Amino acid sequence: MSNYEPKPEHKFTFGLWTVGNVGRDPFGVEVRRALSPVEIVHLLAEVGAWGVNFHDNDLVPIDATSAERDRIVADFKRALDDTGIVAPMATTNLFTDPAFKDGAFTSNDPTVRAYALQKTMRAIDLGAELGAKVYVFWGGREGTETDSSKSALDAGKRFREALNFLCDYALDQGYDLKFALEAKPNEPRSDIYLPTTGAMLGFIATLDHPEMVGVNPEVAHEHMAGLNFMHAVAQAWDAGKLFHIDLNDQKFGRYDQDFRFGAEMIKQAFYLVKFLEDVGYDGARHFDAHAYRTEGPEGVKAFARGCMRTYLILKEKAQRFNQDAEIQALLAEINADDGTYSWLAGGYSAGKAARLKGETFDRAALGERDLRYEHLDQLTIELLLGVR
Ligand code: GLT
Ligand code: MN
Ligand code: MN
Fold this sequence. Notes:
The protein is of the alpha/beta class. About 45% of the residues lie in helices and about 10% in strands.
């Protein structure tokens, strides 16, 4: 492979809020013109994306009348038909409106919680109408500044009750929809509940319909917490819960930067792409990121093209890694197994336990082995830097 052109089979998607980001930040106003959803669909078709994702209010303003809603949705559907762009994921905005300033599903106010449920049911209807198969929950406001204000235990129970209600709602409607929970440690709240993908995976097991709920891990969110993103993705994959993925980039420990995929931590991005391709992940590759605030309309396209191109370059690097004779020989050596302990496979038995207790190990010899990971890592770096 030497051309890095995105194709539908790569399943590259962008949210309306990503290429549509106007560059507002806590210290500055917008620097780009707001594009309409229809314009964004055409922009995505131009750069070669496969799909577009949206929050209810990215598409339909929160105060739209039902006639306005119908017109906007009809225009959007026509743009999808005209371009062949699909809408595989939808979600709810439960964070912008002041009503949600202290959370949505976890708010202390039962009326806010009821409104959040109503808003989400309507947004699920909208997503289903447009063909979405994955429904994301990112609880940006589900947290606290002061823990004097809210019981963390109650918050967890409220979040569970809301998800149980919404799972039953989706089932009741006969929607072919899976839910994907997205974790983030902080921002916009000082602390957000269930801050990591691992925490979400533990929480899912407590739901009434765990089979229809998985995760939507985001690179930047695990990086904000200083964690290894690929490890979180591997755990989700192992649990059968990798329903969606948000690709972008971010320096450790910073604010939510949402940079172009691969812009910062190229080595981590490589291991991630290698993981997704090696296991055969076949869901959408969603770029939840936006162009630098320095950019105008052309910069936005450069940003979107860059996300996809870097993914495809890293995919090719992963193939090279898997075909590199020296790297593979080292891996074979590292993973060598002479079968001495194959009798331990297949789980516990009293006989195996007794036999293992009787074994003697040459601890010093085990500790003296030179594992050659320095050499392996240098080969990986050289491959990534293009001299291999
Ligand atoms: C917001 C957030 C993202 C979430 C989006 C879905 S909205 O931009 O920072 O990580 O995925 O609600
Ligand atoms: Mn995200
Ligand atoms: Mn983010």
